[in-house]
Design brief:
single chain; mainly alpha; Rhopdopsin 7-helix transmembrane proteins; sensory transduction; cell membrane
């Protein structure tokens, strides 16, 4: 039954995790552990960088922004997933779905841009080291961070506004575990042509542009590292970039698969898996990847723990 979205109480029934009722307690425990791990990991990274003056550099400034975005990403999705798992109805209201969509898409878009900015930062640091402090000064970093958040929010508002124009049945069944653009478009009861066109355009100008810039940056970075004669300096440069490259690979793989492919094909099961990679797995893995592979962060964490946990004589 079609109708005005504002005149009827629209609900979305999320069946993404309902196909195995006997596994609901396990799903709840896994999602809860993942959420706590993501929150703690990213909060620790943020605290360590903020409290250690030696880490007050552009790279770590952007890492703080990445941690905050990861917290936003998981908080937009997982708490509602936990509520739906425990609920018998397993539904989310139209307004709740739109709020979740807006916050999640905003964080996802901003993180996509931020990873590109971080790649460019590494390019300047390794390929133009003598001009690094001049190019990546405090003002530039703040402006880049502000642009990242604003562009992410604007992209989210654009997609959310277009979905608000669509008509939905009063009761909709979504084969997913949280509100995201592709599954919402699949259940809409009005023409989604404009939405799909805008998604493709956004993917091209935002996703592909960021991807190409990142690839170009790392191509120059790798070439520059290979020219370094000192084995120790070469190892340090590779170690610094390997963490970021790992995060980029995980994140871009999931995002490109989920948002580019649906325009030509639809596979709900694959969508759920890939969404879990960048919405749930990536925010948990990011702190681990950046901390375990980074001696500066580990040393700063040790000093923070010693200062706060070990009693002073």
């Amino acid at each position: 039954m079609e109708g005005d979205n504002q005149s009827i109480a629209i609900e979305f029934y999320m069946i993404g995790l309902s196909s195995h009722p006997e596994l609901q307690p396990l799903f709840f425990a896994v999602f809860l552990i993942i959420y706590i791990a993501a929150l703690l990991g990213n909060m620790v990274i943020t605290t360590v960088i903020t409290t250690d003056s030696r880490l007050h550099t552009p790279m770590y400034f952007f890492l703080i922004n990445l941690s905050i975005l990861d917290i936003c990403c998981t908080t937009a999705a997982i708490p509602k997933v936990l509520q739906i798992i425990q609920s018998k109805e397993k539904t989310i209201s139209f307004s709740g779905c739109m709020v979740q969509l807006c916050i999640f898409t905003s964080a996802l878009s901003a993180e996509l841009i931020l990873l590109t900015v971080m790649a460019c930062d590494r390019y300047v640091a390794i390929c133009i080291p003598l001009h690094y402090s001049t190019i990546m000064n405090r003002r530039t970093c703040i402006l880049l961070a502000a642009a990242v958040w604003q562009l992410g929010f604007l992209n989210s508002i654009m997609h959310t506004s277009l979905i608000l124009r669509l008509k939905f049945c009063q009761h909709n069944i979504i084969d997913h575990f949280f509100c995201e653009i592709p599954p919402l478009l699949s259940v809409a009861r009005s023409d989604t042509y404009i939405n799909l066109v805008v998604v493709i355009i956004a993917d091209f100008f935002l996703g592909m542009a960021c991807f190409i810039l990142t690839v170009i940056s790392y191509t120059y970075i790798i070439l520059a590292i290979l020219k370094i004669r000192s084995a120790e300096k070469k190892k340090k440069a590779f170690s610094t970039c390997a963490s970021h490259l790992t995060v980029v690979t995980l994140f871009y793989g999931g995002v490109i698969y989920t948002y580019v492919r649906p325009a030509f094909d639809n596979n709900p099961e694959a969508d759920k898996v890939m969404s879990a990679v960048y919405a749930i797995a990536s925010p948990v893995l990011n702190p681990i990847i950046y901390s375990l592979r980074n001696k500066e962060v580990i040393n700063a964490l040790k000093k923070l723990l010693e200062r706060n946990l070990i009693p002073h004589k």
